[in-house]
User: Fold these one by one.
Assistant:
Number 1:
Amino acid sequence: AMPSAQAREASSLALEGRLVNQLARVVDTASVSAAGDGPAPRIVLGDLVLCVAWDETTRTYEVQTLEGEEFRAAEGGLEDCSPPAPEDGGFDLLWPSGLGAPLGGGPDGPSEADFGALFGRHAAQALSERGYVVAQAPLLRKHQEEAFQAAGSLPPLDLREELAEDVLGSAPNSMRALRLPPDVPDRMPEHALAACDRAMTEAGVLLQPYAATALGFTAVGRSPGIVRIAHPSRYEAQ
């Protein structure tokens, strides 16, 4: 028997706020950025995307890629899914909502109205279980480029030898650490890199209510951020 119109509508609404696979053609890419002036996003069938909302009038989904690009997808063109594990190139949580995490949420999505609390609780759980958490933050490509340009003017950070591998990875000689100025929460971020650093401040605030129970300490404030980028090539250095 064919599903009723009411059942189809409920199924479409159930995908709101969920991570989904893009299975059908893209309907509209007019709103690809907040300014509406960016290039059309490269949408690949099977890509992991976020279903923002279901539009009953147009019978389409408002969808966002993990790079922050927005588009519309056809009815029936999305499939609920979970991201790959961090060790397989995936992530635990979406920033800032915490949605789509394999660490929590049932088939009908999270019941919490406060998605910030959802993010903080799941982040604390991951940190408690394995010592790290990977959050995916949608960021438009033009803002990624802006952040990279801003990093070029930051002063270097002198690391103690015993910390080099923890900060720079297993090949520390190929990377360099740069020091961000302290984040001032009541000041608007000046560029995309500062906005990313503000997200770290906000993540700490969301984590704070769960830190004592899950991690055994209470955080007060935060240290200045660190940017890790690849060393320029020898040619560029010259």
Number 2:
Amino acid sequence: AVVIDEAWAMWAIMLSTPPVVSSGPMAAVAFVLFRAFDVVKPPPLRWVSRAPGGWGIMLDDLGAAAYTILILYGLAVTSHK
């Protein structure tokens, strides 16, 4: 199976979040959040996934990554004292 879109999205998540997120248990949380957003496809990801060719596949994963990054930043900000 081709998983380059998931790998690309996870790299985007790990490179776009604070270092504390990129290691240990938070990396697992990031992966679970990303997969949840990728499977559920909240708006507008379902619409984006309909783009022609391979664009929809790549763009919906980047959208899921963006949602994940927002949640992780929110967790980092609210849990950091």
Number 3:
Amino acid sequence: MLIGILTDLGRVETERAPTAMPEYDLYLNIKKPAIGLYVRHGAGLPDLADKNDWDFDGTEVESLLPNDLVKEITENGHAFRDME
């Protein structure tokens, strides 16, 4: 989105509006709490045979996650993470 700004010389300059940082939902395996599963915010759990074994643990912004984890989520729609 572009925003117009009126300068002191009467010119309108445009700049990009800040965009929201992508967010990711974390699910923990209740049988093995050291295993985390990240998905895009609001995507829900992927087609897992054991969906009842996963518990929502919160949402994190992209800047708090390692780059390789974000890349894996982007490529696969989800990523597992050792939470220890």
Number 4:
Amino acid sequence: MAGTIPQPEATLALPIPALPALADLPPPTLDDEALPALPALPDLPPPSREAVCGSCEASFTVRDLTLRRVPCPICGDSVEV
């Protein structure tokens, strides 16, 4: 090997500062009131993926994620998803 990197002869151990105790942290407040509850999460969209036909270049959505091959809705050719 042409250029070897010299290893350091010694490493210095630096002291790690102490973490504050949890009792020392103030409780989270908002104007001396309890924090409001989180809003409900929105519903997830139904799973789907896009496919493009190699023959006619049509782009369409496939809603069944278990399918590996679907017919093109425009030209009828088989499209791998």
